[in-house]
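User: Please run a holo structure prediction.
Assistant: Happy to. Please share the sequence and the ligand.
User: Here you go; the ligand is nicotinamide-adenine-dinucleotide.
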Amino acid sequence: MNKLKVGVIGCGRISVVYAEAFKRLSNIEVKYALDIDLRRAEKFAMNFSGCEYSDSIEDLLQKNLDVVHVLSPHYLHREHVIQCLEAGFNVLTEKPIATTLEDGRAMAETAKNTGKKLGVIFQNRYIDGIIEAKKLIDQGAFGKITGAWSSLNWHRPPSYYQIEWKGSWEKEGGGVVIDQAIHSIDLVRYLVGSEVKSIKAQIDTRVLTQIEVEDVASAAITFENGVIYSFFACNYFTSNSPIRIELSAENGSILLEGEKVTIRLNGKELIIHPTAEIKGEGETYWSNYHTSQLKHYYQCLLNDKPVPVSPDDAIKTLEVVLGIYESAKRMSRVSMEK
Ligand SMILES: NC(=O)c1ccc[n+]([C@@H]2O[C@H](COP(=O)([O-])OP(=O)(O)OC[C@H]3O[C@@H](n4cnc5c(N)ncnc54)[C@H](O)[C@@H]3O)[C@@H](O)[C@H]2O)c1
């Protein structure tokens, strides 16, 4: 079988994780790396024999590729994804799908119109214990889910925000919520299995005062099924503490600490440790599950099945992120109901 020809747009910090993941996939060959910083494109391309590189999207769009991975800054996701879909490539883009709902919907629409497959990275859905917890929830083992909370206490030094697009409403789309805690929001939505009805939130810039976006946020998020989700995130802790998420349910609870999951069900306790291998140069706080989502994406592509995570699903997570910002800016509860 011919291998799928793969390209990447954006060879920055996260690209090292992709380089490692691509080396573990047998059904692809990496043929093209694009970055406006040519040295980064070259460095990435050096991982793969026969991989071309450039700083010209026009050149990439002329190539014979099957899949392009979009790892560019948030505000460019729309442009890059739509250009690739229209050129006939399937796409897997990094989170968030976009910085606005309008952009996300335009991307989903283009995928439908072109018949190409668009997926969005939320690799934490592939943590071993999360897969088990989701399976048990879907089987009804926990009964009704009654509550949820998540807490992210991470460290982003001022130097992190010296990257040109970081710390800007226009380019990053926000701060700790859209960039870091979006993973917690997505996981809670995924596990609760209901959509958000209303949000009452506050955001602030308390410590990283050189940035215009928030470095802290808290919210009470009410789901249509009645679950109230207590959300907290900040980027000014002294280190990157493991993310914590807990769901309580009629028959037990689920606790995520980093990538370790403790499932308590009908009086029994099961602890599921992560099995994903530690990647090469990537940051330890990114979690090690990109390879799992990439494998799943390619399996679905080869078997002509819907690819994970669908644009509509990723837009729902973006709606919650943007709902937090809207509630905070209006200083009132926002209703997500149409
Ligand atoms: N899933 C995760 O856990 C995770 C972790 C980190 C980053 N990310 C995501 O990955 C994406 C990239 O983040 P990063 O931290 O690698 O950022 P980065 O700034 O380190 O890298 C972005 C790269 O895009 C390049 N670029 C900018 N404009 C371009 C253009 N017009 N054409 C081509 N290349 C261009 C930059 O030169 C840079 O090398 C973001 O969506 C981010 O949220 C996800």
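The chain has a mean pLDDT of 96.
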